[in-house]
Specification:
The structure holds two protein chains of two kinds. Chain A is mostly helical. Chain A has 13 helices and no strands. Chain A has one domain. Helices cover 64% and strands 0% of the residues of chain A. The longest helix of chain A has 39 residues. The chains are: A mainly alpha, B mainly beta. Chains A and B meet through helix 1, helix 2 and helix 3 of A and loops of B.
Chain lengths: 334, 299
């Protein structure tokens, strides 16, 4: 069944590319982009499939045991727009048309300088015929990188200004994972892509790695009373575990907003190792950033993106001149 | 280690699934894929060594050449080589040239020892390779700049770089010495003077003219037209179009069955290999393989 589904996606990818996109590339004189665009179609299709799977998996959980019920779901609708725009359009475009060529350029210079990225199968030869195991190894290493990127998103004031867009949602649902500023997404792709290049993740596999991350992250943002228990919460990030992270302003000492807790994206073991793991038993705290409320939080996609630029500007202004207010102080609660 | 022993059989097609990092083996009598093996990163093209004993697979992603014994089908060696995409031996077997499409350079190796002799930057996207009949010169298409570069193999110096048309891909040397180039960004094959690099003739074949295969009898030259989804059969002497064969799915590399009755062509966009019966010029069957099948070799 899995093979049949994969075969179907491949055929849809081929038909979409061959009948819709290749003629356009040909007419525009852009045939040297054909393979990149072909791969981009696969990424968008798998991204769409991941959205469908996430919905089928997580939405029943939200209906079954929701943490919160809302009559006004405008905030959720904005996150749906985020998901569709970012997963199917903006992120694939940035990844394949902007970052991939930069990655190739860096790769080229490094190879001319004598650095050839290692291949994990060459280091661990039994992995040659175990592509799935190799894939999992890459996921673990990249998840480690994601843990530290997430820590920096909270630690660095300018990065927190961007990342606060993700955290200011008070109606956290399965759609909230993609609620990110576009610059934050670019940084995330550059961060993950650089690490992937350094450890030799094949360019064709990196989009699949991203989709694997997205599925877990959709689950972890689900508005559901679902906990994996004390033991399970060390194995995999789930809705309860991540909800505690989104309640960081309410977290008790020794955690505070700038440091936070439960930063892991897939594997909580990183929080355990680095002392940021926190369990609150059955508590399902409110989510959001206390100082960020009102229309600048409960707004549409474009206004929310503009809000991100404003917050970043304030944070950078404060960085340059400490007399200026930081972004939270610049935009007090309404 | 790779489990490609199936390739030892007499009736076998080997296909490189470039997006799946895999090598597919097809039983060419039943037209079934009998194995698909993870072989490394980014396998795109393959050639046989001049003595015909070994298949050399260029792994652009994992930076190596994989050598497979043609008789036993067993992998015999992996040789480090930075980003080989398209490879080809010179007619005298003295040189092996590798085009690095992703990293914009051309590597010239000793054809017997695989030692790097020359490394040249190539602007940009060096793609396909052809040699002069005396093995003194290699010609490489440059997709990104719509040109062809001529390089002296002994000195590693560039003889000339000349425009040929948008996004040139396949290139072959005709028996008379002139060059034919598939101009993928347009709908024609360009004939070039190998001494001057001047385009002397354009033969319209179909949108996305891409790659070539000469029939064993030397009378027909096949050209894949990737955008049109066709294959043009040209008279090898006059370059007049004899027939056009339908081959949807992004036709790319071709191979001839040993009996000369079937043309096998990889369909890049549809993850299949088309088998075309040449007598009728019609599609006999399509064999599903891995994603983005590229290079093909039929025993």
């Amino acid at each position: 069944m899995f093979d049949a589904a994969q075969r179907t996606i491949e055929q849809v990818q081929g038909i979409v590319f061959e009948t819709s996109l290749q003629p356009v590339l040909f007419q525009l004189g852009l045939m040297d982009w054909s393979e990149d665009v072909f791969d981009g179609v696969a990424f968008a299709l798998y991204g769409a499939l991941a959205v469908v799977i996430a919905y089928l998996l997580c939405r029943p959980l939200e209906l079954w045991r929701p943490v919160e019920r809302w009559t006004d779901r405008r905030g959720v609708r904005t996150d749906i727009v985020y998901t569709l725009v970012h997963r199917l359009g903006v992120v694939p475009a940035i990844l394949f048309l902007v970052l991939a060529p930069i990655g190739v350029m860096v790769d080229s210079y490094s190879r001319f300088a004598g650095y050839i990225p290692p291949e994990i199968e060459q280091l661990v030869t039994p992995l040659y015929n175990q592509p799935f195991v190799t894939f999992l190894v890459y996921m673990v290493v990249l998840d480690f990188g994601e843990y530290w990127r997430h820590r920096l998103q909270h630690r660095l004031p300018w990065w927190w200004a961007l990342h606060s867009l993700h955290h200011d949602q008070r109606q956290m649902t399965l759609w909230s994972d993609d609620r990110n500023h576009i610059l934050d997404d670019v940084l995330a792709l550059a961060w993950g892509g650089t690490l992937a290049m350094l450890i030799g993740v094949p360019p064709g596999e990196y989009p699949l790695v991203l989709i694997g991350f997205r599925l877990i992250e959709s689950l972890s943002h689900t508005n559901s009373r679902l906990s994996f228990g004390r033991f399970g919460s060390i194995l995999l990030v789930g809705p309860h575990y991540h909800r505690v992270h989104h309640s960081i302003e309410h977290a008790a000492a020794p955690f505070d907003r700038s440091r936070g807790c439960n930063f892991a994206v897939i594997l909580p073991v990183w929080d355990v190792i680095f002392g940021t793991w926190r369990q609150t038993d059955d508590a399902y705290p409110d989510t959001g950033v206390a100082s960020l409320t009102g229309p600048r939080v409960r707004c549409g996609y474009l206004r929310h993106q503009w809000e991100g630029f404003r917050r970043l500007g304030a944070a950078l202004g404060h960085l340059v001149d400490r007399r200026r207010p930081s972004f939270v102080a610049a935009f007090p609660a309404e | 280690m790779l489990g490609v022993a199936d390739a030892a059989r007499a009736t076998t097609a080997v296909v490189l699934d470039s997006d799946d990092d895999a090598l597919s083996v097809i039983d060419s009598t039943t037209y079934k894929e009998v194995s698909r093996t993870h072989i490394g990163r980014g396998p795109h093209h393959l050639v046989q060594t001049p003595d015909g004993r070994t298949l050399v697979i260029a792994m652009s992603g994992s930076n190596e050449l994989v050598l497979i014994d043609r008789v036993t089908g067993i992998e015999t060696k992996r040789i480090a080589a930075s980003d080989p995409y398209q490879i080809g031996f010179s007619p005298d077997g003295k040189w092996l040239v590798a085009a690095s499409l992703r990293l914009d350079r051309i590597d010239i190796y000793d054809g017997k020892t695989y030692q790097l002799v020359h490394r040249l930057p190539a602007s940009t996207m060096p793609s396909h390779i052809a040699y002069s009949r005396d093995s003194s010169t290699v010609f490489v298409t440059l997709q990104g700049t719509g040109s062809v570069v001529s390089i002296d193999l002994v000195s590693g110096k560039v003889n000339w770089t000349k425009p040929v048309g948008p996004t040139p891909a396949g290139i072959v040397t005709r028996p008379g010495g002139t060059l034919l180039v598939g101009v993928m960004g347009s709908n024609y094959v360009a004939e070039m003077d190998p001494a001057s690099g001047d385009v002397t003739r354009k033969i319209t074949t179909g949108n996305g003219a891409h790659n070539f295969l000469a029939a064993p009898d030397g009378k027909t030259l096949y050209v894949t037209n990737r955008v049109a989804g066709t294959i043009s059969a040209l008279d090898a002497d006059t370059l007049a179009i004899r027939s056009t064969i339908q081959a949807p799915g992004g036709p790319d590399d071709m191979a001839m069955s040993p009996n000369g009755q079937e043309l096998w062509v990889t369909g890049r966009w549809r993850a299949w290999v088309d088998v075309i019966e040449l007598a009728s010029g019609s599609l006999k069957t399509s064999v599903p393989v891995g994603r983005s099948p590229h290079g093909i070799f039929v025993y």
